[in-house]
Amino acid sequence: MPRPTTALVALATAVFSTISAGGGGALAQPSGAPVASACTLLADVATGKLLRQEGSCDKPITPASTFKIAISLMGYDSGLLKNEHVPALPFREGYADWLPEWRTTTDPASWIKNSVVWYSQQITRSLGKLRFKRYVAEFDYGNRDVSGDPGKQNGLTQAWLSSSLKITPLQQLDFLERMVRHQLPVSNHAYDMTARILVLAPLPNGWEIHGKTGSGAPRRSDGKLDLDHAYGWFVGWANRDGRNIAFVRQVQMDGRGNLRAGLQARDAFLAELPDLLDRL
Questions:
Q1: Does position 263 have pLDDT exceeding 50, yes or no?
Q2: Are the C-beta atoms of 165 and 62 separated by less than 8 Å?
Q3: Which residues, including other chains, have CB under 8 Å from residue 160's CB and lie 6 or more apart?
Q4: 265 vs 33, 83, 199, 226, 258, CA distance in Å?
Q5: Region 42-51: what's the mean pLDDT?
Q6: Residues 6+ apart with CB under 8 A from 69
Q7: Please, which residues bridge with residue 241 across strands?
Q8: Which of 10, 215, 251, 255 is buried most deeply by CB count within 10 Å?
Q9: Selection from 3, 2, 12 nearest residue 213 by Cα
Q10: CA distance 219 to 107
Q11: Is the confidence at residue 100, as pLDDT, over 60?
Q12: Rounded Cα gap, residues 32 and 272, in angstroms
């Protein structure tokens, strides 16, 4: 497996050094890093009605670790993943090992909790290029481009990591709505298990939250990551009394060192979400 670039390692280390990006446990303290731009979207899943749209929400960017939602659906639908704890895969030399949490046996629950890159890559490798590409196309996910970095033939393991696959916040919202409505070509087991491993702590007003963060960065003209302008995602849905509200928060940071973009997006949004939901 290709070794990650220094810039990508720096980004991952900064993102996960305090707390895993997947959820669970106490929230990290917001870093207060400056945000250059932000998009907020909420929609009623049953009706498809867009309830709130703020900011610019039509720029296609890397999905980063939010793509684990799609990979989870693929893994459970194909039978590669069984439940929260099967399969438990051992860490091996050569896997992405940028963080201590990744250098151990990982199961589906800890994969999402710790956002383990190599576990995602083991799923996509097991799917193979044709099946992986077919799932992305059938999900109508973003620009559907899983070719990877130009000339490197690495789409199967890198497409969603600041590479060829891109998605807008509005497309993320549409994907989430179709998922919650069970309108994707996967089994009920895939829906149920993916929802289960995405569960976060409930909000004080009783809404159950399913969500996933993602942190990445745009590419400069020389192909290197622009760490001065990191992207942060927090996407998912809230459920209470049978009502489902899909949400997307996407930010772009302004300034070197502000690499915990996904965590900052999550923490700020969760602080706002109870009031937002109560006003819908």
A1: yes
A2: yes
A3: 62, 63, 64, 67
A4: 10, 29, 17, 18, 12
A5: 97
A6: 176, 179, 194, 198, 212, 235
A7: none
A8: 215
A9: 12
A10: 31
A11: yes
A12: 15
Distance CA 168, CA 174 (A): 10
From the list 198, 273, 269, the residue with the least C-alpha distance to 39 is 269
Dihedral in degrees, nearest 10, Cα atoms 91, 96, 101, 105: -20
Q: What is the pLDDT of residues 236-247, one digit of tens each?
A: 999 999 999 999
Instruction: Read off the DSSP letter of residue 47.
Output: T
Residue the block writes with tokens 């890093």: 33
- For residues 121 and 5, the model is more confident at 121
Give me the active site residues, please: 65
Residue 105: its H or E element: none
Tell me the C-alpha distance between 131 and 135, whole Å.
Answer: 6
pLDDT value, residue 36? 80
- Is pLDDT above 50 for 212? yes
pTM for the whole structure: 0.90
**141 vs 129: CA distance, rounded Å:** 16
> Are residues 38 and 20 in contact, defined by beta-carbon separation less than 8 angstroms?
no
In sequence order, which residues have a C-beta less than 8 Å from that of residue 227 and are 6 or more positions away? Answer: 7, 10, 11, 217, 256, 259
3-state secondary structure of 79: coil
Of the candidates 234, 249, 251, 250, the residue with the CA atom closest to the CA atom of residue 200: 234
164 φ, ψ to 5°?
A: -75, -35
